[in-house]
Amino acid sequence: MSEIKKDIIDVPVDEKVNPIEANDSADGSFKPLDSDKKEETVSLTEDGDEATMEDLKTLRHVSGKIPLRVWLVAIVELAERFSYYGLSTPFQNYMQNGPEDTPKGLLKLGSQAATALSYFFQFWCYVTPILGAYISDSYLGKYKTICMACGIYIAGIFILFMGSIPSITTRNAAIGTYVAAIIIIGIATGFIKSNVSPLIADQIPKEKPTIRVLKSGERVVVDPAITIQNVFMIFYAMINIGSFSIAATTQLEHRVGFWAAFLLPFCFFFVGVFALVIGKNQYVKLPVSDKIVAKCFKVAYIGIKNRFNLDSAKPSNNPEKNYNWTDHFVEEVKRATKACKVFVFFIVFWTVYGQMTNNFVSMAGQMETHAMPNDMLQVFNSLAIVIAVPLCDRLIYPFIRRFTPLKSMTRIFIGFMFSASAMVYAAVLQHYIYKAGPCYDAPMACAPEYSNTPNRVHVAIQAPAYVLIGLSEIFANITGLEYAYTKAPISMKAFVTSLYLLTTAFGSAIGIALASVSVDPKYVWLYTGLAVATFISGCIFWILFHHYNDHEEELNQLEYDQTDNVAKDVFPGEGLAPIASVSKSIRSVV
């Protein structure tokens, strides 16, 4: 880690320019300053100064610089997502169909069982982050937890690959190795997911908003909240660049076999391992706290016992109890609790998102694919995100911020509306498929001679549904990740992020419950119901939480203050000494 960057040079008091003296004439007479200029000279903060409340309200907010180490963490996520999407996208065909079916599969479990097992895999992948976050925040730290998860991940993909080689496996053996593999991969995925997004955000210096004077002379506020927002945009773009692996693995599945589709993610995963090794001495690694998650639950328990009043857990209100936390820590738990209330509404959002990996694949199988793999259409979701993220980052968000701040609750609400629109489109498209021959509302099942003949609808028409879900992710999911990080205590970033990810598991559980209607001719009602549920959830979300926008600056202020208070919360009674090296790391530049 390099030396602390010194951006501000102290100037002796006697060398500072007095605005009145600077206006004195050569003959010693005084010429009054213009009143407007005088007010500006006295009130303006200089380049590098901390922004005042007036500056925060009146000046344009911009992002700070993003260090190289952020990109190294992003590569880790890219490699993990390349492997995850590359191997999981063929799962629906792999489970649903047999070797003689069109499209080909292996396990031949049928549509309902395959959809239920697909949702179980999603559920498992987003329950395990809780365990991964607990281990990270209480014992190993984010970096070591991710390294451990990588080893588990490699073992899981290798088992999946070996079980899919036709020459050395049977159907029953393939089922056994598949179940074992998805359980192992799910553990590894959860451990990485709960830690990699907080780790990438940890690489940004925790500083208060400062003033920067641009070359044009414009004074702007360098806002850490905007920097974090941009970091999560980069993070999400890398996720979706990684997900382009589906274009390769679906072709391998279609033309070579499932073993080849699983071998590619196994090999590519080592790119992420390499990025972890390269960045080992560059990453900012916050210290592991002293059972901080347990402390959080104790605070919550005390609050619940006292009619959900968390203030009752403050040591200042109970001096006789000798609590091993501070009042400030209780305030941070209160802030994290507010974030968790917001997360509840994402359950419906993730139920919609899950349609892409199962029911949308089944839908594409009912349409004319023209030699294109029916599970390849997911690439349009990734393509939409990769194109839209830089547009939002560089054009749309900065343009909107010139007129009004586009705050978290607003962005999440917009995401919900895009999600509902995707389900409306899917319902209309499914209705259109059922109106087309030759099998109408029983595609490829109306007669034996039509068992491999889809209805006469071109599969490309499905692309807008993936695009709409992609746009919903940009507004809702990216903001959710950002909100989980910025509203969590500094020593519980991974745990609060895991609580956000847990909503995905609940969404998958709902998907499992809906598996009974994931059959023809019920798909239209399934998509219609999800559209209505998402729209209503979005509206209720806005009604309940839109006022959080008004307090976002206040909540972010707690984030800026955390670096100076974390030692008091994690090491009560030991002062700031244990955190000194961390504060230096956070504020330094590689």
From TrEMBL:
The protein's name in its UniProt record: Peptide transporter Ptr2p
Organism: [Candida] jaroonii
Lineage: Eukaryota, Fungi, Dikarya, Ascomycota, Saccharomycotina
